[in-house]
Every structure is written in structure tokens, then in C-alpha cells.
Amino acid sequence: MATVKNIHTIPKGRTPMPEQAAAVRAHNFEEVARGFALADALREADRCLECKKPRCVAGCPVGINIPAFIGAIARQDFRQAYEILRQDNPLPAVCGRVCPQESQCEARCIVGVKGEPVSIGRLERFTADHAMAHSPAEVPAITPAGRRAAVIGSGPAGIACAADLARAGVEVTIFEALHMAGGVLKYGIPEFRLPKQIVDRELGLLQQMGVRIALNTVIGKLFTIPQLRQEKGFDAVFIGTGAGFPKFQGIPGENLNGVFSANEFLTRVNLMRGFRHPEYDTPVGMGRRVVVIGAGNTAMDCARCALRMGAEAVTVVYRRTQRESPARAEELHHAQEEGIEFQWLTNPVRIHGNGDGWVVGLECIRMALGESDASGRRAPVEQPGTDFQIPADTVIYALGTRSNPIIARSTPGLTVNQWGYIEVDQRTGMSSLPGVFAGGDIVTGAATVILALGAGRRAAGGMLDFLGLRPAGTLVETAASAGEP
Amino acid sequence: MATGYRIVAKEVYSAVTYMWEVEAPDVARAARPGHFLMVRMNEAGERIPLTVADFDRQRGTVTVVIQAVGKSTREMMRLEAGDTLLDFIGPLGEASHIQRRSKVVLVGGGLGVAPVYPQLRAYKELGSCTISVVGFRSRDLVFWEERFRRYSDELHVATDDGSYGFKGLVSQVLQQVLECQRDVEEIVAIGPLPMMRACCDVSRPFGVRTIVSLNSIMVDGTGMCGSCRVTVGGKLKFACVDGPDFDGHQVDFDELMLRQRRFRREEQASMARYEEVCRLTGEIPAIGPA
Predict the structure, then answer these.
(1) Which residues of A are less than 8 Å from B259 in CB distance?
(2) Interface predicted TM-score of the whole assembly (ipTM), two decimals
């Protein structure tokens, strides 16, 4: 007798993700999570109740119709599932791997009330990977609209913006400062978490849609934004340059040899292929005992790269506890499995060096959580007399980033806030300069891939309005643009 | 889109010093004295920061002078006119703030002679009285003497071994110039770190503003990596976006000189491997030991 699927009839536990064993993967750069096989995906899709009033959708910054795409998987209509994803997310293969689902869609999944929530992210990844492997990507029919747009930066925000503009017939050129397109997806997130060929496939799709990608082009230096508008004939400009300017803490010893920003370490490893030195020329210059300061996703990436580069000991220090760590639960879990040591409630106070200017250790002090601060988190307070030293020859700062000043300095009239982030109209993404839009980390400060995608799409909508290519007032409203409840 | 950047001319100045004129019309149009570039030879190559030594907007070319100090710059020395570079990115950094000065001294040491040249020309074109001091290790390493003469009211050439011009260091010549000519308003000094530091030490008692150009270790050159950080006036600065020009009297040279040695071990290992490969394949390394 067939029973109606409900919260009591489905498996309580989620389908396990096939992964490389921790002891093996800690020494290679291959992807950690192998991805669902078909049977895994079908089993997991069957756990979705396909709620009539889905809570998960409201948790998605770009408002993907989650029950619909999972329903399509359950019916084994994978093409349909992929198309549903692509309607709202131009990079499902990327987001399925790097989104913090546990604090977004999956946090709200009703199945999670009685058991473990549906693995929405893993299903998203499965759908995207399956589509890429089994059906050649279809390039949508595009009618040229006779307008031109420049997109600055080829990271998530720029890709999302360019995709929407191209679909509407706008002739798009993406300007990328580095010698490689993809932004943080390439220089930041390591191969073992996001294989570069996935990013290249997505960029390839964009190019098939007619988007040009101009590498090695630093806007603000080679051409300025006023030049793009006036001399180069671009009708609108989108700034999606991210927030890639490293932050340090301001403690003594930060300029010692062996102290890196996370950006330097990761660009040496990922962008410059330092993990394949000497086949590739760029050295990484890492020592044997590595300490990473910070406990976000970037910190996990640094720690795990260091391990794979052959570090003997890798320690993460963070001034709050694991609960407050901004990293995805999966990254923390993977890092711990791989043997990375965590020193919670620990704050660096000084980096010690030897006479030749090289790091020999990090002096830290123990912290305790005190009263809640403005962010709602309990503020860490130093515990006097608890100083101790962690021996280290490499210290990596993963304390976040700030805005890069190049664009703001070279664009008269562009309004930025006190931290250098560009001020935009929340609805349209337009900056203080008519026709110049911005979105992603350069507006919000460092955030996530999916938020940057949402911002890129919103700005694309604003640009289409500005270019008169669609009736005003048809903007896509997403959870993020409407404001989180 | 990067289809490469063609080297239209090459000149070899010594066993370790060479010049490329590279076709890059957009870069040539945007370049100004003081800017630098990031250059990558091929897919496996490093991004190498090079200071703009000259640019010709009509020809659409940018000139760089390179010293073969490591594996990459030695390998690059193999490229000839007609060959292409994979990446040629710039102009980067803040251009020099060049104003008319009643009298300015431009000091170039070794390779630093090249990036001083466009500054000299710019000062002269603004009507400044220009005194140039260029120094090399020996006579056979001297380059661009005629270019300098064209824009200099006074030109001093120094060699370490005395084989040409003044025997001694450019900082010693600078000392003499400052002692004789009390109306020098500004000094620009570009070259190896010890030379720039020596020039700053000489000019400090005279109270003459001294601008140095810091070519510190970089990965991206656009403010992303922070590898080029330097302490100036007690503050953290990035040579790539805040510089490369800084007030030399404020620069912490001790720290910077230690930082420039960060990759010495890796560089030596790369060089040893390169020479071994050359030996095994029967190819002659691009150049012999310096």
C-alpha cells in the first residue's frame, strides 16, 4: 500500500557524500567531495517534501525554486532540474560546492526540524555536474540589442551580471586585471574545494553567449571608467572588483619574513600554481610549522593548502570559539578531520623573529567570551597572564579583506563610504555616477559567492532598465534584495 | 584574449642587463614616468614587476630594462625581437608627481638608470635645471649615456672600479653635488636598495626631499597580495598601489632589505635546477654567472 510521503516516512539522515579519505586527501589537491552518484541523488531528492510553501527558497539569496529542481531530480528529469537552477543562478556547479547552505536554504528546511535537512547544496552540485557531463550546454538564442556594457572583474558578481546582460542582447566585455579569469573562484578558492575546470566551463558558456573577456586589463590604470564610457563607447559599466585588499592586525612583527596575507599565500598556490613548483616558476615560500590567524573559509583554505603543501604542523588560532567561527561547517569539519589543530579563544599579540628577520613564533594570549557586542556575538576579552608562544616559521593572516582603492582613486564623482566600498542604490545597483553600477564585495565588503551573484544579477536588471531594454519596474526581487526577514 | 605582446627590439647592455621594447599600444598610451608593469613570459612563468623605462605613444611601445638576477629573468633573456610575451600588464602604481623644479638631481644606479630616464625627460620638459648622476660597476656596463646627456644640464657618470668617469659610488657624487649646489630642490634616486639608502643618508642633512622607487617583491601588483608591503614613516604601505615612489627619508630600508631576501633559498634552487637542465640538454644557459 502506497503511503503519502511525509516527514515521518522519509529517512531521517541525509545521504552521505562520497569523499576522499582524510589521510589521503591531506596530501593532494584533488577535490575532497566526490559528488553524489545517481543513486545518492535520487535517494536524497526523495527526502524533499516539495513543500507548497517552501521555507528553503526564502533562505536562498537568489531565490532558487528549490522544491521544483529537487522534484525534477526525483522524476529523473535532470535537464529540467538544471534549467530551474540556471533561471536564478548562473553558477550552480560553483554554488553547489561553496555556498554556506547550512546557514541559508538548509537552515530553513522543514525536514531539518525532525532530522537532518535535505542536502540542497549537494543536489545542486549533482544537477550541475550531471548536466555538464551529459548534455552539451545550450546557448540561448540572443537578439542583439545594439547596446554595449563593460563589466569590471570576472569573479562571481561580474559573471552573473554579464550573463544576464548577454542574454538580453547586450554586447558585453569583461575586463579582468589578472592573467586569468574567474576572480576569487580562481585565485582564492583552492582546487580541492572548487576544481578550476568547473569555473572555466562556466566562463566558456559566457563566451559562447558572445561575452568577450579581456585579461590583463586593470581598469583605473590602463583605462579609466570615464574612458570606458566616453572613448570606448560603453553605454553602461558594472564594477564587480571584489574586496581583495588584505588586512593585517597591526601587531609587532607583521613584516617579518614568513608572514603572509591569505591572499598572497593563496595566489601563490592557486593562481600562480605554486603547488606545482618547480614545474611552475612561482615559489610559495612556506615553512614547516604554519599558523593561520582567523577561522573563516579563507582561513580553512589556507590551513588546508598548507597541509597539502607539506607542512608538518598547521594550527588555526581564533579569538572566539568554534561556535562563532564564520567558516562553513563542512570546511571546519574537513579541516579537523585532516589533522589541523585549532586554538580557540586565542589572540595573537606579537610575532617573534630571529636576527635574520624570519618568523620563529607567534605569541598569543587566551581569551574568554564576555558581553555581547554590536554584532550580537559575545566579545572576546583577554585573560591577563595567559601569554604563550606557538613555534612557527610561517604565519598567514586570514582576517578578511578591505576595498582596493584603484577604481575609487581614478573615478571622479564615484561615492564610496568610509571604508572605500562603493555606495549604490539598493534596488538598481547604480552608483553615484549615472550608468555606472556596482555589486558584490566592493559594495558590501567581503561576503559570499552567492551574495555576489545576487548583486550582479540585480545590477544587470538596473542596467537593462538604464539602457531602456526592459520595462521599468520588472526587477527580480530576491530574499537578499527584499531584506532578510 | 591575451594573444601575447611582441618584443619589437632588444638590446643587450651587458652579460646580465638587457632592454626590450614591447608592442603594447594601450599600455604606452596610459604609461607615465614612475609606473611599473607585471610581465609573465609563459604559462609556467612568474609575474615579474618591471619599472617603465620609456614609452613611445606614436610607436605604441613600452621599454623595459631587465637584469638577469634569477631563473625567470635569465630565461627571459633568451627572448629576441619578434618573440612574444604572454602577459604585459600595466601601467601599475602611482605615476611620479613631477613638477617643475628650479634644480633637480636624478640619480640612477645600475639597472635603476633606466627608470630614472623618463623622469629626467619629464623634469626637463617642464623646464627644470637637471643634474644627472648615473653609476655602474664598470665601463662595459654603461648604457644610455647619450640619452641622459640630451636632457641633462649636468651629467656625472661613476663606476665602482673607476674604469669610466668618477671612481666610486653615485651617493658620493651626490654628496659633492649637494655640497656645491645649495639650490637643489628635489632628488630622485632609483637603483639597488643599498644605493637608494645611501643617497637618502647623504641628502638627509641637507634637508632635500628625496624620492625613491621601490621595486619590492610582488605577486599581482594590484594591491591584492600585500607581498610588497613596506614601512614608510612608521605606516604600512603597499609599494604596488601606494607607490612605487616614496619619500626616501621615511622608508624603513633595514626591514625592506630583509624582506627582499624572502625567496633567496627558492631562487637559488630554481637557478641550480635551470643550470642543470641547460647542462643536460646541452643548451648554454642564457648567460654565464654574473
Answers:
(1) 255, 257, 357
(2) 0.91
